[in-house]
Amino acid sequence: METNLLTAIKEDAVDAVIINEDAPRKTSFIEANTEEVTLEHLKKDCIIPVFSRDNEVCISHQSFIGSVHEAVRDFYKGEKIEDPIIRVSHIVKGRIPSAINKPVKDLLESDRTMYYERMIFEIQVPTIHQDINGNHLTLSVVGCKSYARDNLAGRFTAQKFSMAVGFQNMVCTNQCISTDGYREDIRAMNEGDLYKSALDLFGNYNIARDIHLMQSLGEVNLNEHQFCQILGRMRVYSCLSQKAQKRLPLVSITDSQINNVAKQYLNDNNFAGGEDGISMWRFYNLLTGAVKNSYADTFLNRTVNAMELSVGLSETLQGKDERYAWFLG
């Protein structure tokens, strides 16, 4: 990617600061139902599923990671690029043909096969960062793949991937991602398609807009009554009919996650409310903290929804947009 393109993007982020200091490395960008693995493990220990009708091999998790990592290095050339942090879930176990009839107790490691249905990874660019409302945020790229989204029982076709670019709040490792930096349904036939899609995502991402949105959240406050009213309405939303839900802005955050927001309002070390209530920035980070308890394939959607809800509620409180007025009673 041409250097002048990256320079232009950086100039858009008026307040962004580029440094060469190493930020503290944390790995818990998603918490629930996943375990951290290495790229070497994916390459050496995991088989690659195929489309059964044609026996055509799928794009492997490691190929997806490699393509995006290469795109990050090329687009953000000259910046410090961290190695991917990889988390997986939903292991699919199997056996080699010669071990089909072996009792489980007699199976050797060489008799077993495995791959992970779901995988999510994060690549940090720590030399592109911003301090927002007292928190240090670092540019972050996230990719997610679930083989459950593909019809592996059918013929070879384009596979579905999700990618996002945004910031990570290093105080709490929460991802801060907006619709501007998210592509839910990327279709790819090969690694080259993934590389091009990643470059397209980075090129269209508006850093300045995201920084402005997050900074503005710190300028709006909820009192405790409003906070409780919003959480109560979010709980009611899940009980509404589909027709009623369609008349309101989307809430994809689950009841258990909303309960966690309420708990952390009282107990969170960084974003708890106080006598004067809570700023929308803190409210937003309670939401992004709660959605870290999501399956890999729902994590990015809910993270983006946390931004939509926070910005929408903030604008309603300021009289700029009435779409979220129902949540405020």
Question: What report would you give on this structure?
Answer:
With 329 residues, the chain is α+β, with helices and mostly antiparallel strands. Helix 6 (224-237) packs antiparallel against helix 8 (255-267) and helix 8 crosses helix 9 (280-290). Strand 8 (159-169) and strand 9 form a beta hairpin. It has 10 helices and 12 strands. It is globular and about 65 Å long. The protein folds into 2 domains: 3-206, no CATH class; 218-328, no CATH class.
Tally of distinct domains: 2
- SS elements, strand count: 12
Q: Can you give the mean pLDDT?
A: 90
Q: Would you tell me the structural class of the helices and strands?
A: alpha+beta
Shape: globular
**Major sheet characteristics:** 8 strands, antiparallel
Topology order in helix (H) and strand (E) letters: HEEHEEHEEEEEEHHEHHHEHH
Indicate the percent of residues in helices.
Answer: 25-40%
Per DSSP, the total helix count is: 10
Strand portion? 15-25%
Alpha carbon gap, first and last residue? 49 Å
* Low-confidence segments: 1-27
Assembly type of the shown chains?
A: single chain
Please tell me how large the radius of gyration is: 21 Å
Short description:
It contains ten helices and twelve strands.
Q: How are the secondary structure elements laid out?
A:
Layout: H1 3-12, E1 17-18, E2 35-37, H2 39-45, E3 50-51, E4 56-57, H3 61-75, E5 85-95, E6 112-132, E7 135-146, E8 159-169, E9 174-176, E10 182-188, H4 191-204, H5 207-217, E11 221-222, H6 224-237, H7 242-246, H8 255-267, E12 278-279, H9 280-290, H10 296-317
Antiparallel strand pairs: 1-6, 2-5, 3-4, 5-6, 6-7, 7-8, 8-9, 8-10, 11-12
Helix pairs in contact: 3-4, 5-9, 6-8, 8-9, 9-10
